[in-house]
């Protein structure tokens, strides 16, 4: 019986008109150019970067392979370790603070307060600015001679000091301030969309059981927002890793190398120091760090859904 049915399906498929077959293939044909371009310009250049990291390329690509010597040089480079440490500090604080602020603001707006639309617009506005603009604005605000320190001292508080921008120990935190200011509103929008998608009956049932509002959000609502948290972490991690323009506009990597990040390290060695091989090796390590975070998380999520 099964073979007869399969044979009938094949006969029906063979009798279909060319127009019907074209209709089936049309979505694939439309997507194919974009897929091919993405495959070449994204994954193709990733592969090319890996190839360059195995060579002694300097000003121009050279294909004299030297194995993993560039990675060994990178591990011995003090500036690379400074940049990696800065990324850990900046990325960790940036992601954590944005998640906390974004979730808090979303919960606040979820209470159906007055002027919700105005507040939502105010919180989201910084995300409409480029990181270059954000860096320039915060560079002015944090300038001891012009910004917050000068303003407060003008009010009569002569002992007030806020010179993080020129303090090599604190300059990395100025990047955190500027980046959090820009991205926390976007995270709020993600969480708010997730909150509005949760069935109100779940919250009402928890309230009938006597649960307090903070406990409801912590025990009931937040577990339902795991996909939102995952999306926010991935987006924020991407912003942190590629924060080249913010660094260049706000601190320029200084004082010294105090705010150097892997992205600025890669640019400096690839385009200004004519060390393409070393810069490519640093780029591959950045990609490896992203995959080290992304792959285990994706595996746990997919495994949880499969067994859930």
Overall description:
The protein is flat and about 70 Å long. The protein contains 14 helices and no strands. The chain is mainly alpha-helical. The protein has helices at 2-14, 18-53, 69-75, 78-109, 116-124, 131-141, 148-154, 171-196, 200-208, 213-224, 226-241, 245-250, 262-272, 276-307. The chain is 74% helix and 0% strand. The chain starts with a helix and ends with a helix.
List the helices and strands and how they pair.
Blueprint: H1 2-14, H2 18-53, H3 69-75, H4 78-109, H5 116-124, H6 131-141, H7 148-154, H8 171-196, H9 200-208, H10 213-224, H11 226-241, H12 245-250, H13 262-272, H14 276-307
A few lines on this structure:
The chain has 308 residues and is mainly α.
Content of β-strand: under 5%
Please estimate the helix content: over 70%
Average pLDDT confidence is: 84
Question: For this entry, what is the oligomeric state of its chains?
Answer: single chain
Compressed to H and E, one letter per element, the order equals HHHHHHHHHHHHHH
Query: Largest sheet, if any?
Result: none
Query: Per the principal axes of the C-alpha atoms, what is the gross shape?
Result: flat
What is the tally of beta strands? 0
Low-pLDDT windows of residues: none
Q: How many helices does DSSP assign? A: 14
Distance between the termini: 36 Å
Q: Output the radius of gyration.
A: 26 Å
How would you classify the helix and strand content by structural class? mainly alpha
């Amino acid at each position: 019986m099964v073979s007869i049915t399969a044979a009938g399906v094949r006969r029906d498929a063979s009798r279909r008109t060319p127009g019907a077959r074209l209709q089936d293939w049309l979505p694939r044909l439309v997507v194919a150019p974009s897929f091919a371009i993405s495959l070449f310009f994204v994954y193709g250049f990733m592969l090319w970067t890996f190839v360059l990291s195995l060579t002694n390329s300097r000003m121009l690509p050279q294909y004299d392979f030297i194995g993993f010597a560039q990675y060994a040089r990178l591990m011995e480079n003090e500036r690379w370790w400074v940049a990696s440490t800065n990324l850990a500090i900046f990325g960790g604080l940036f992601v954590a603070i944005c998640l906390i602020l974004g979730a808090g603001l979303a919960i606040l707006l979820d209470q159906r307060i007055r002027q919700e639309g105005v507040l939502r617009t105010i919180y989201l506005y910084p995300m409409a600015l480029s990181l270059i603009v954000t860096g320039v604005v915060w560079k002015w605000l944090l300038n001891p001679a012009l910004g917050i320190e000068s303003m407060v001292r003008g009010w009569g508080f002569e002992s007030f000091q806020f010179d993080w921008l020129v303090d090599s120990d604190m300059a990395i935190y100025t990047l955190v301030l500027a980046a959090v200011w820009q991205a926390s509103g976007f995270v709020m929008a993600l969480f708010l969309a997730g909150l509005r998608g949760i069935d109100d009956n779940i919250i009402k049932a928890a309230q009938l059981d006597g649960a307090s509002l903070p406990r409801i959000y912590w025990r009931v609502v937040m577990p339902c927002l795991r996909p939102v948290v995952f999306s926010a972490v991935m987006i924020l991690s991407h912003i942190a890793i590629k924060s080249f323009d913010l660094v260049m506009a706000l601190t320029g990597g200084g004082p010294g190398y105090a705010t150097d990040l892997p992205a600025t390290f890669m640019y400096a060695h690839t385009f200004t120091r004519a060390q393409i091989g070393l810069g490519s090796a640093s780029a591959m390590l950045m990609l490896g760090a992203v995959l080290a975070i992304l792959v285990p998380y994706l595996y746990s999520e997919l495994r949880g859904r499969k067994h859930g």
